[in-house]
Design goal:
The protein contains 8 helices and 7 strands.
Length: about 220
């Protein structure tokens, strides 16, 4: 089944509100658990932070991290600011309105760790997101990126929608369905990663619906 980029079905404000209403607690916790199994920080850049659930989870684990959380949607950042304030993490997390397609304000090699969760499938050209992560990561730094893996059939997509978003609203289910259609297969992301010098064994399936890149740039 070919990849279908996400249509503009919802307004940015509606999409942000719908995404925020979904419960990502367990997914965010697992992301941070696995992130902390390897070298992390102290300066972390999150590409496509959304409501900032992962930066908050990370900073609540330790005061040692400073996170620059970026997103291309103002509406997402407005929600993120509220969530960061409520969590008491204003001193550790700074927000930046920046799409990965235009991040000239960020210096090459500035980050010890670049993270991203479920951003690439939103991009018309997913390679741009990985290229941005590669550019921002210092020599010896780490890239930790996770995203959805596109199923092979419509039937598999519908099964995943029911399994993982069956309790969400109809709009929430549609957002997840569109995301699965727009996601990359493991082979597709491995080809992109290989072009940046990331070996295939650092790009692996990490669940029945996610692949993960976990790689440190050579010093």
């Amino acid at each position: 089944m070919d990849r279908t980029p996400e249509p503009d079905t919802f307004s940015p404000s509606d999409e942000a509100a719908e995404y925020h209403a979904m419960d990502h607690t367990a997914v965010n916790r697992q992301f941070v658990d696995e992130l902390l199994e390897g070298p992390t920080g102290p300066l972390v850049v999150d590409l496509g932070c959304g409501p900032a659930g992962i930066p908050i989870e990370l900073c609540q684990r330790s005061n040692d991290y400073e996170v620059i959380a970026t997103d291309g949607e103002v509406e997402m950042l407005e929600i993120a600011k509220q969530e960061i304030d409520i969590a008491g993490c204003l001193g550790q997390i700074s927000l930046s309105h920046a799409a990965v397609e235009s991040m000239e304000q960020f210096e090459d090699g500035m980050a010890d760790t670049v993270i991203s969760n479920s951003l690439l499938h939103h991009l018309e050209q997913p390679r741009v997101g990985l290229e941005a992560a590669f550019r921002l990561t210092r020599n010896g730094g780490r890239i930790f990126i996770r995203d959805l893996a596109r199923p092979e059939t419509e039937a598999e997509i519908e099964s995943m929608v029911q399994t993982y978003s069956g309790n969400e609203s109809e709009n929430g289910q549609q957002l997840f369905r569109q995301s699965l259609h727009a996601a990359l297969t493991l082979n597709e992301i491995r080809i992109i990663a290989r072009g940046l010098g990331i070996p295939e064994d650092h790009v692996q399936m990490s669940s029945d619906r996610h692949w993960t890149i976990d790689w440190c740039r050579p010093t």
